Amino acid sequence: MLKTFLRAMLKPLSFLPAIGMMCLIYYLSAQDGVTSAGLSLKVSIKVVEIASKIFDCPLSSAEVMQYADLIHYLIRKFAHMGLYFLLAVSVSFPLYVYGLRGIPLMIVAGGFCVAFACGDEYHQSLVAGRGPSKKDVMIDSIGVLAGIIVVRIVGFIGRKTIFRPLSKSHKKKKASV
Question: Could you tell me which of 38, 49, 120, 132 has the fewest CB atoms within 10 Å of its CB?
Fold first, then answer.
């Protein structure tokens, strides 16, 4: 009885991560062009500095900036893909919990996330120094597809292992104990 009550209470809360991801994406796309570019440049510099330490290849600050400029575009695009991957996972998981599986899950979650990506690009068109990009929607869609596939794989493995229904003989033994 308590387990049923907890499930009924927690199921609707499974949508909170998706709402959080949408707020984060909206917040990041509301940044003006200079702020957004500065943030991703800081990430690019960190990536170069970490790679320099990992590969034991000390770089001067000019070299760090040179390499950071080279990867800056890729970092921005991977950030797009990563955010929409997380959005797709956070949207797909609760839908999966509510019983949406297979192609319908891909259509509903994918359609929602791609529509959000389109809306996000429109939102960026209203922000100073930013503009909409069909290429970004395509990159976002790759992240969405990957996220939905991961949820389907994890859900399938979980149903076949941890969450599979108990066999009738196991239920009978448990009832007699």
Answer: 38
Cα–Cα distance, 121 to 80 (Å, whole number): 11
Residue 90's alpha-carbon distances to 10, 96, 111, 119, 149, in angstroms, are 15, 10, 14, 18, 12
The whole model's pTM is what? 0.84
Looking up tokens 């509903």 gives 108
Q: Which residue has 């290429």 as its token pair? A: 135
Q: What is the pLDDT, as a whole number, of residue 5?
A: 80
Nearest to 94, CA basis, from 109, 113, 110, 79: 109
| φ and ψ of 71, to 5 deg | -100, 0
- CA neighbor of 129 nearest in space, from 43, 46, 30: 30
128 residue type, one letter: A
Exposed, middle or buried by CB within 10 Å (0-12, 13-18, 19+), for 60? Answer: exposed
pLDDT per residue as tens digits for the range 84-102: 999 999 999 899 888 898 8
pLDDT of residue 107: 96
The answer to whether 26 touches 120, Cβ cutoff 8 Å, is: yes
Largest interatomic CA distance in the chain: 74
Whether 171 has a pLDDT exceeding 60, the answer reads no
